[in-house]
Amino acid sequence: MRVKLLGTAAGGGFPQWNCGCALCARCRRGELPSRFQDSVAVSGNGRDWWLLNASPDIRVQLEATSALAAGPGPRDTPVRGVLLTDAEADHTLGLAVLRGGADLTVYAVPPVHEALSTALPLRGLLDRYAPWRWQDTDPLTTQGSTDRTAAASAPFTLSGGLTATLHPVGTKAPKYVAAPATDVPWASAVRIEDPATGGALLYAPCLATWPDGFDDLLASVTCALVDGTFFSAEELGQAVRSPDAGQSLMGHLPVSGPGGTLTGLARHPDLRRLYTHFNNTNPLLDPSSDAADEVRRAGVEVPEDGRELTV
Ligand code: MLT
Ligand code: MN
Ligand code: ZN
């Protein structure tokens, strides 16, 4: 399977339009690579491509990736649809950019589609341009289980020869949802397998905790692309004096520290491991930082936009 990293920044991108921090300033001076907002494209055959999340930067991301260029017919595109890990603005506003695209399918868990019908009503709006298939993923029913947040989806097939499942990893709702249900799986990890090669990718850009079963999920894949939003728990509070800075961090487990994702990933040395969804405060954005050195020495990659992985 081919995996293209279309964007590796958290919401706002890097640099962020309203941020004058030292890292964003260095990025604007061309000293650090800029990054689009988090999105991935995967293909089993190089002709049918599926997006994992649709960032508001998607138009430029598609244009920057020759495999995803439109053609050969005047309205042909290799983009077949989108799998959503969550309903966050940075992962869903790109759907509006794709308006008018014929014959697309959007896969997500029911609460995400519900949010896209109500609090952020893209669904009805987009169907007026071209009707899409909004496909709720069915939970795999486990006998005796009553925990609505725990069930993985039943596997579903993507054109081009891939098999996908969504795995609940968190219950943090998007900020724009006024009174969110707290007991539903707002955040999922996507697992994509290529049955032809046995390669499997896990994409988990929103990890508020290291969820139960996540080690088993990592052990079931050959490559993992994991939430690297913040390097440290203090980082956002230090960068911006915002009353909800600490709260925002709660949606993303930091890389470093006891219980950070780097400790968890260290248990899986046989796996190709990469971080993504970097916030503009993250010292990993600077390859010469101590943070970047620590992550490299742990065998975990900090990829730039445009990186292609063969999984
Ligand atoms: C997140 O990753 O926590 C969200 O995208 C934050 C946001 O609303 O930008
Ligand atoms: Mn985000
Ligand atoms: Zn900044």
Automatic annotation (TrEMBL):
<feature type="domain" description="Metallo-beta-lactamase">
    <location>
        <begin position="49"/>
        <end position="278"/>
    </location>
</feature>
<dbReference type="Pfam" id="PF12706">
    <property type="entry name" value="Lactamase_B_2"/>
</dbReference>
<dbReference type="GO" id="GO:0018189">
    <property type="term" value="P:pyrroloquinoline quinone biosynthetic process"/>
</dbReference>
<keyword id="KW-0813">Transport</keyword>
<dbReference type="InterPro" id="IPR001279">
    <property type="entry name" value="Metallo-B-lactamas"/>
</dbReference>
<comment type="pathway">
    <text>Cofactor biosynthesis; pyrroloquinoline quinone biosynthesis.</text>
</comment>
<dbReference type="InterPro" id="IPR036866">
    <property type="entry name" value="RibonucZ/Hydroxyglut_hydro"/>
</dbReference>
<dbReference type="InterPro" id="IPR011842">
    <property type="entry name" value="PQQ_synth_PqqB"/>
</dbReference>
<comment type="similarity">
    <text>Belongs to the PqqB family.</text>
</comment>
<comment type="function">
    <text>May be involved in the transport of PQQ or its precursor to the periplasm.</text>
</comment>
<keyword id="KW-0884">PQQ biosynthesis</keyword>
<protein>
    <recommendedName>
        <fullName>Coenzyme PQQ synthesis protein B</fullName>
    </recommendedName>
</protein>
